[in-house]
């Protein structure tokens, strides 16, 4: 099995605290044991099809995306996170630029993408249900890159930023040291998987024994204050402008932020007025 720091953390949590909730979806919770078993399972399926793969993950904030991210890494491959709500032309361009040989997407999209990429290997949510005991789990060779994340760039053309496994491990260690997420903390995820901010949410939570709670629908995004309250979010990761959204919707209240213990800001400049607004209703952050 992959022996990186990131995987040791996830593996240890799944063994010591198998019944802790790793991911909360609207209709189902996934424990760390279930999550790790699914990761190992899809990793084995990837290894059977393509060693040292470059895998495009076209998805949103669902169990398929999270399992695929860790499954690709465990298989020794490199993943390319792509939000399913991106324009189709952009998705196709990213897959081509990344030279991905595997595509993971919702089963409803396979027929469409197979017409464009007939020679590529496809996995869907159906692969999460496939279980075998004889999958290889120890890749002989591991790609140096953990993932390639694409930004628009100044020209509007998608540009891939390559992140090595070593860099990811260092970042996860930093998150573990500075996030101070306790086991069982409910941790938000607002950004899509194609945004670099989501790396902090996903890895910071799942390497600490926290519970990842994605903001999945438009209602949650428009009314984040209610999302924090209803989901009892302990740890919030967001861009500073989210505070303005909460304030403008008249939801920046003690009651809505009651569960919050920490906020991690990233991606934008944090303004003094935003800090004052938060501390006015939540002094002990």
What does this protein structure show overall?
It is a single chain. This protein is 41% helix and 19% strand. It is an alpha/beta fold. The protein has a four-stranded parallel β-sheet, with helices on both faces. A two-stranded antiparallel ribbon has the order 1-2. α1 (5-16) crosses α2 (32-49) and α2 packs across α3.
Question: Which keywords apply here?
Answer:
285 residues, 11 helices, 4-stranded parallel sheet, alpha/beta, two-stranded antiparallel sheet
Q: List unreliable stretches of 5+ residues.
A: none
Average pLDDT level: 91
Main β sheet profile: 4 strands, parallel
Record field, number of beta strands:
12
Q: What is the SS-derived class?
A: alpha/beta
Strand order of the largest sheet: 4-3-5-6
Rg on CA atoms, Å: 19 Å
Content of β-strand: 15-25%
Continuous helix count:
11
**Outline:** globular
What is the string of SSEs from the N terminus onward?
A: HEEHEHEHEHEEEHEHEHHEHEH
Q: Helical content, roughly? A: 40-55%
How would the blueprint of this fold be written?
Blueprint: H1 5-16, E1 21-24, E2 29-31, H2 32-49, E3 54-59, H3 63-74, E4 78-83, H4 88-98, E5 102-104, H5 107-116, E6 121-123, E7 145-151, E8 159-164, H6 165-179, E9 186-189, H7 197-206, E10 211-214, H8 218-222, H9 224-230, E11 235-238, H10 241-248, E12 262-265, H11 272-281
Helix pairs in contact: 1-2, 2-3
Could you give a quick summary of the protein structure above?
With 285 residues, the protein is of the alpha/beta class. The protein has helices at residues 5-16, 32-49, 63-74, 88-98, 107-116, 165-179, 197-206, 218-222, 224-230, 241-248, 272-281, and strands spanning 21-24, 29-31, 54-59, 78-83, 102-104, 121-123, 145-151, 159-164, 186-189, 211-214, 235-238, 262-265.
